[in-house]
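Moderator note: this is an archived Q&A kept for reference. The question asked for a predicted structure of one protein chain; the sequence and the answer are reproduced below.
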Amino acid sequence: MNAPLFSLLDQNGKHHALAAYTGSWVVVYFYPKDNTPGCTKEACGFRDRGAEYTKRGIVVLGISKDSVASHKKFADKYHLTFPILSDEDHAVAEAYGAWGVKKFMGREFTGVLRNTYLIHPNGEIVKSYIGVNPLVHAAEIVHDTDVLQ
């Protein structure tokens, strides 16, 4: 399946279009909310493995429904070295299947699901990670791209 195309603003107000990354491996990871424990661990995992991703030619794009301003504070606080994109109307999350019903403390609501999509340089989604473990996810992707390349 080809990855749904998008163009969103990052934490610095710069547009990122998925089409601009044709020819590169791309990790598109969706996360629920800036500055929450699991989301912070996941983002820092990607940050800490940045050299491994760069060596393999992998681009990381984080996406949540938080605003550009929220993303800026989050990126600055944790020294994030990759774009985190604002999908305030959650249209991109919906296109990827990363928007749905969640449960927390006995109540149900809709929101961004913690899913990641590994996109081949030809634009095809080659692996979907559904409900990821933020503590090991960044390492898992390094392993999988080594196997797939």
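Archived answer notes: The mean pLDDT is 95.
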